[in-house]
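writing this on my phone so excuse typos. first protein, seq and then structure
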Amino acid sequence: MRHNKKRGMKLGTDASHTKAMKKSLVRALFENDRIKTIDVRAKAIRGDVDKIITWAKKGDIASRRLAIAALGDKDLVREVFEKAAQGMWADRNGGYTRIMKLGPRKGDAAEIVIMELVTEPVKAKAAPKAKVTKVEEAPVAEPELEAPAAEEAPAEEENGAE
């Protein structure tokens, strides 16, 4: 049974307040492209923002309706879908947000962050400049069994000569 095992972060409030707070933060992020909030809240809305941008990149009517239900603002959804249609996030496969830490808040030492939408194009990783080829190892000479016997033979001759 799943008693008291809710998914997601509770953020110190009841479920309805958490849902309303997350919806408000996501809406503010899309309106301003950057918000200042605490670290835990920024991490909590990161998935919701990514989901809405993925819907916007898809661009069909079902995705638009899901985004309207998540944001609650048709005009804002239209703006987000237009940005996605213009190719703002066309080269990204995720990671649409950036969280930069500012430090602790003076009153309660909560970690304050700036969360912003990433608009820069993705930089391709540098390809290796030279291809490394495996060099064949030289054959290792096996020690011969006759060599130790040959060393013992002169010693015996010396002992016998004395």
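second protein below, same order as before
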Amino acid sequence: MAEENKMDEYEQMNARIRERMDRIGRKIMVMSGKGGVGKTTVTVNLANELAEMGCRVGVLDTDLHGPNVAKMFGVEGASLDSKDGVSFLPVEVRPGLKVISLSFALEDPDAPVIWRGSMKMGAIRQFLADTEWGDLDYLIIDTPPGTGDEQLTVCQSIPELTGTIIVTTPQDVAILDARRSVNFSRRLGVAIIGVIENMSGLVCPHCHEEIPIFGKGGGRRMCADMHVPFLGEVPMEMDLRIAEDSGKDWMSEGASHPSREALMDIARAINEGTACSTSRDTSFLGTSSCKPSACASCTSNCPSRKKQQ
């Protein structure tokens, strides 16, 4: 009887997840095989730029042991709220951009989260089932490094997951782990939207020349070897680091910066469908008709398009 009750609760949560996800156009998981490659940097800046384009964007932070999304969005210290004591109201960063993170529930920001896998899986599923996102064009899911409990929970809880974006840096050590992320996506049958090479050279703030601290081109070569889309290179910049530490929106800064322009190009390619698939069938890659605004009239069998009433 106890096992039957647990199964009923699991299926009820699945139903709530499906109901929430049906109101969201694209569900994208950002992942990396290795830590410290700037995965959260990519998540936050892509979300900001997509919102700047007029999209309705939600960000789910599933890096439970190191939830840094709130700080980069400048909403560190915000708390979770609820209308009914059951569901969560995401924190609104600005109009069109919402975020949910475990950091909003921590009283002490320095307290470690010491959880086993089952607790982490339960927390992620609860966020998916009980967060009141409303209607969104994008849900971007930031994950911790690796191919473990968190990534597996997202993929198994959202069967219609649009795809993964894999972040790496150019050096061989990071590329080795990024290849595992590619194969993780393939093994689970999830489309690979593309790979981003972050920290692709340092732009000197004095002479403005590019210094290949971690090398250059490793991500592009990996994509050619593994036959996956390459989304672009994002160089290192001191001003970008300063903006993130202070919680400022880097994408809305007025001056021209190589990293901002690279991220804008990547966000545009994703939103316009020129480097993105809304299906697990990667033959859709590169079709101009594949974009959120086309979902309503789309007749394909794509699992990520909004269900029609």
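The radius of gyration is 19 Å. thats all i got for now
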